[in-house]
Automatic annotation (TrEMBL):
Species of provenance: marine sediment metagenome
Pfam families to which the protein is assigned, alphabetical: Acylphosphatase, zf-HYPF
Signal peptide: none
GO MF terms held by the record: carboxyl- or carbamoyltransferase activity; zinc ion binding
Coiled coil region boundaries: none
Residues covered by the Acylphosphatase-like domain: 5-93
GO BP term, example: protein maturation
Protein name: Acylphosphatase-like domain-containing protein
InterPro entries in the cross-refs: Acylphosphatase-like_dom, Acylphosphatase-like_dom_sf, Carbamoyltrans_HypF-like, Znf_HypF
PROSITE patterns for this protein: ACYLPHOSPHATASE_3
Amino acid sequence: MVEVTIEILVSGIVQGIGYRPFVYNLAKELNLKGNVQNLGDAGVKIIVQGSKEILDKFIELLEENKPKLCIYESFQVNWETTPSLFESFEIAKSSSETKGIGFSYLPPDVSICDECLQELDSKERRRTDYPFNSCVDCGPRYTVIEKIPYDRPNTVMTDFPFCSECNKDYKNS
């Protein structure tokens, strides 16, 4: 089977909404190799390797199953046949690199979602009564960002360290 490498460049609302974990989980599910990375122009770069058939499915699922807050302004796929470059799939450290493929928007602030409201009221869950609960589908984005790429250290939240459990969640999703 011939491995193919593709670079996918996306712009729109693709940072601060759980897009990289979504891409990571999809790539792992399809046994693909490569990485996903936030860019300095608020876009995202995906480099992924696998068979053409599986990569076609990956692209289809990126478009069909995107996160709730995701809006694609541009979705550019560059195909090439290269030797295997990766051994696994990972979320790469954000880059100040810009690709200029389309306009990216800062993600909006979104009111608390039903799942986070349920977590506030549940006595069995760790965020019970925590007034600042949010997730990839809700919470502040636009009002807390200081610069892009959108990563926690680039927001006003950098002064509020995660507890050990939340830090595990952040690093593993």
